[in-house]
Amino acid sequence: MLERLQKLISQAGITSRRAAEELIVNGRVAVNGVIVTELGSKADPATDRVAVDGKPLQFSEKHLYILLNKPTGYITALKDSQDRPLVTDLLKGVEERVYPVGRLDYNTEGLLLLTNDGDWANRLMHPRHEVEKEYHVRVRGKVLEQQLKRMAGGVELEDGVTAPATVRMVKSSDQNDWISVTIHEGRNRQVRRMCEVVSLSVVRLRRVRYGSLEIGALKPGQFRYLTDAEVQGLLQPGGISEPEPQKVQKPRPPRSTNTTKTGTGAPGSPRKAQSTAKVGTTASGRPQKPRGTAKTGIETAGRPPARTAEKQTKRQPSRTKPGESPRPSRPRR
């Protein structure tokens, strides 16, 4: 299947698509031994031999996503003509070839992403997706409210007016102030140039957030791998994933303390309580007199309690005088 050369170079983990276009224009890419300089050129990785600087492309099936806390004094590139330290030198133990997603200046520190997934990197860097990037800036002297408003509304640079940004004060001291600048553009040295326009002198610049990702406890020079959820979350609008809704458990109804026995009627009808004593009404509407005793053993008003069979069996026979015949027993009513 034919693919654009810059896409193939990106998928091979050489560099991003934008940087791959520069490689093509500069004559550093060859297809089947022929140098190609046109950006619209395509090749089939299954049949064609694509090489960069004479080295054939090797496509990695395993994608890596790395978050690095870049210290100052490192170049965000894979090569440097002045032989300065590279950010990839900090990735000890990472054997796969990865490249930076965007860049941080030599004197800028903070959060930097690296990967060998070209499509993922290209989507994050494309201005259309407007992935937020937050920087903390320490400036010399005191910052005025008017300067913050100018930066937030957009300032004129050599390459055009900047998009609206989120600018706020972080903390203030006697000699320096810290401000937060959140942008979604990816211009070269944009935050530094925005500060220069409003007459702010940058002493220190640190990226603290990229989309929903923060540096956390990583020290300068340390890195970690992203989780699958973090990788997918950066693809959401603004690079910020929505939190999962928490399940709310409905409270159970309180248990009834009533010990009265209840019965069930027709479906949907409320249950009617059953009285312990059987009391009803006659056909004429008069109240019916209770019969016997209640199940609880309480005597019913107006009648003595009935004798139990045990008491009847313990009944003593009547005494008769000598010479008299015993009285016949009374028939039980």
From TrEMBL:
Residues 235-333 are annotated as: Disordered. Residues 3-72 form the RNA-binding S4 domain. CDD domains: PseudoU_synth_RsuA_like (cd02870), S4 (cd00165). The keyword Isomerase applies. Keywords: Isomerase, RNA-binding. It comes from the Bacteria. Pfam families: PseudoU_synth_2, S4. One of its GO terms (molecular function) is RNA binding. SMART domains: S4 (SM00363). Residues 272-285 have a biased composition (Polar residues). Its EC number is 5.4.99.-. GO terms for cellular component: cytosol. GO terms for biological process: enzyme-directed rRNA pseudouridine synthesis. The keyword Secreted does not apply. Belongs to the pseudouridine synthase RsuA family. NCBIfam families: pseudouridine synthase. This is Pseudouridine synthase. It comes from Oryzomonas rubra.
